[in-house]
Design goal:
The chain has eleven helices and eleven strands. The chain has 295 residues and is of the alpha/beta class. Its cofactor is glutathione; Co(2+); Mn(2+).
Length: 295
Amino acid sequence: MSSMENIKLGCAPIAWTNDDMPELGAENSFEQCISEMALAGYKGTEIGNKYPKEPETLKKFLDQRGLEVASAWFSAYITTRDLKQVKKDFLKHRDFLHAMGAEVIVVSEQGGSIQGEIETPLFEKKPAFTEGEWKRFTDGLEILGELAKEKTMTLVYHHHMGTCIQTTEEIDRLMQETDPEKVSLLYDTGHLVFSGEDPLYILDKYFDRIRHVHFKDIRKEVIEKIKSEKDSFLIGVKKGAFTVPGDGEIDFKPIMTYLKENKYKGWIVVEAEQDPSICNAFEYAVKAKRYIDNL
């Protein structure tokens, strides 16, 4: 088996505190979150709302625990807001991540997204771009990709439930209509399987453009319930649609084998938004780490 020498394992803070639903994990502090990540054996973190906004302050906290910043989410509104404002917001985000030593910038288009709408059924009301929006979106995304390159950073696009880039067809079109030099892909196992896509197919087809990986598992019985009860994405999260690798339906062994054999270089970030009062964040972070180590 080929080695893990080019792969760094990180953990996302969303298991401790949910940025979209702050009531989930409101009791968990930033310091507790990063201390438990380090204790569980992770080398890096993505960034949540409770994290300090000043690079020097954040660096100090992370250095003490031997953690690096892998990346952070950027909500783009290319299709619904003035591009000048989107660029301005992106540059601020880019410069913060650059100061933290991150090499990739996670971007998701939130124009038309229903992922944050607690009343909107996830599958029945899934949004889609018009032809005009597709053009505006891909042009704008390439502009953000150029801005990332100015700092020798890479824009990685996050396909996501409840958005216009969720399905295999939508990922295909995004990849076809953007320049590989400007737009790369974030590969998220949980969102692919939740949507009904084949994660190994996407991994193999777009491996050359995958620059960031999220390992997230799903609970199949919960997803069936979400479909039958016409739940929203956020209600699905509350009901436990997601969990950590090794605790759900996805077999990560062929995925990890593929990444290693094809010499993937970059972060694998464990991510599972759950209610920490039901699924203790530290306990599940340890469970995921042990499962991945055993792979």
